């Protein structure tokens, strides 16, 4: 089987609100596809359709070779799902949670205990196995939630924003677990708000905007679409950055405030040394002096903002 997940023309509306307008996705077996998009772009709706939790209004999809609309029971036997909100029971211990899920998969008591212990070791939870899950840290809860989704040894795993709200250390720990799952042959569809996460983990990235896939390629290929280099101008402050962006925009330059966290930066695509001289000359004549000028390789932030037109004002 070449494709573990294959969707064509998925459509979905809730009342008059049309969420998906014909989504096409293909995830080859044993790879990770990261699904990116602004809030409301249809990421979670797509995951819910592919995991049989929601029926599409149109289009077709197969997961593990089974039709999600007609063979839902078979689809559910080969998938695992970690949703945005953890599904573990805070009143149960980590071990009890996993044994509970094992029971839902109709494993016998002895096999449930064996499987729970195996997953506790795999997800580095043995020392906390007999503590109530309500006392776990955010990272531990997410690892337990991921372990629960693996009780049935699924071939295909759906991770819907699994690291949202985690601190950097916990995110890195979960990334290590995801890489291990990939190395073992698991196919993963990951939705995330973190562009660096997609860059680190994904074989391919699909970008959803307005209920449609607007790009689908390897991370490096998507970056090349934006251009070879970006010019980053660091100004003295927010007001100077706004002024610099306005001066350059008035002269036809595609200058924008940085999509990152620094409001004092302005970025634009660079087209050679002559272009650099023109930009600096325009700013000099306007009395705007950058504190720092640097060249930067395109990032997924650049790709995301270019494709979705979500440019910071």
From TrEMBL:
SUPFAM superfamilies, sorted: P-loop containing nucleoside triphosphate hydrolases
Gene3D superfamilies on file: P-loop containing nucleotide triphosphate hydrolases
Location in the cell: Cell membrane
Family annotation (InterPro entries): AAA+_ATPase, ABC_transporter-like_ATP-bd, ABC_transporter-like_CS, ABC_transporter_ATP-binding, DrrA, DrrA1/2-like_C, P-loop_NTPase
Domain ABC transporter, residue spans: 5-235
Membrane topology: Peripheral membrane protein
UniProt GO molecular function: ATP binding; ATP hydrolysis activity
GO process annotations (BP): daunorubicin transport; doxorubicin transport; response to antibiotic
Record key words, sorted: Antibiotic resistance, ATP-binding, Cell membrane, Membrane, Nucleotide-binding, Translocase, Transport
GO annotation, cellular component aspect: plasma membrane
Protein family: Belongs to the ABC transporter superfamily. Drug exporter-1 (DrugE1) (TC 3.A.1.105) family.
NCBIfam families reported in the protein's UniProt record: drrA (TIGR01188)
Name of the protein: ABC-2 type transport system ATP-binding protein
């Amino acid at each position: 089987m070449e494709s573990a997940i294959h969707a064509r023309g998925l459509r979905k509306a809730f009342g008059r609100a049309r969420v998906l307008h014909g989504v096409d996705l293909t995830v080859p077996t044993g790879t990770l596809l990261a699904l990116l998009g602004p809030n409301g772009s249809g990421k979670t709706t797509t995951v819910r359709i592919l995991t049989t939790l929601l029926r599409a209004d149109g289009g077709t999809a197969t997961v593990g070779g089974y039709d999600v609309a007609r063979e839902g029971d078979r689809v559910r036997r080969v998938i695992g799902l970690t949703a945005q909100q953890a599904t573990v029971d805070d009143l149960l211990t980590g071990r009890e949670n996993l044994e509970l899920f094992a029971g839902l998969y109709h494993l016998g008591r002895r096999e449930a205990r064996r499987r729970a212990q195996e997953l506790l070791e795999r997800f580095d939870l043995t020392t906390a196995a007999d503590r109530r899950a309500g006392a776990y840290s955010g990272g531990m809860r997410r690892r337990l939630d991921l372990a629960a989704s693996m009780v049935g040894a699924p071939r295909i795993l759906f991770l819907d924003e699994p690291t949202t709200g985690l601190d950097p250390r916990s995110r890195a720990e979960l990334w290590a677990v995801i890489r291990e799952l990939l190395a073992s042959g698991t196919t993963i569809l990951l939705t995330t708000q973190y562009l660096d996460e997609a860059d680190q983990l994904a074989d391919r990235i699909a970008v959803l905007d307005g209920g449609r896939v607007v790009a689908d390629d390897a991370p490096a290929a998507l970056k090349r679409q934006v251009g070879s280099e970006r010019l980053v101008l660091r100004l003295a402050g927010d007001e100077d950055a706004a002024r610099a962006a306005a001066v350059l925009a008035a002269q036809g330059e595609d200058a924008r405030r940085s999509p990152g966290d620094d409001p004092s930066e302005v970025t634009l695509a660079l087209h050679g040394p002559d272009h650099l001289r023109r930009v600096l000359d325009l700013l000099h004549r306007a009395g705007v002096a950058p504190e720092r000028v640097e060249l930067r390789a395109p990032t997924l932030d650049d790709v995301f903002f270019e494709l979705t037109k979500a440019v910071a004002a």
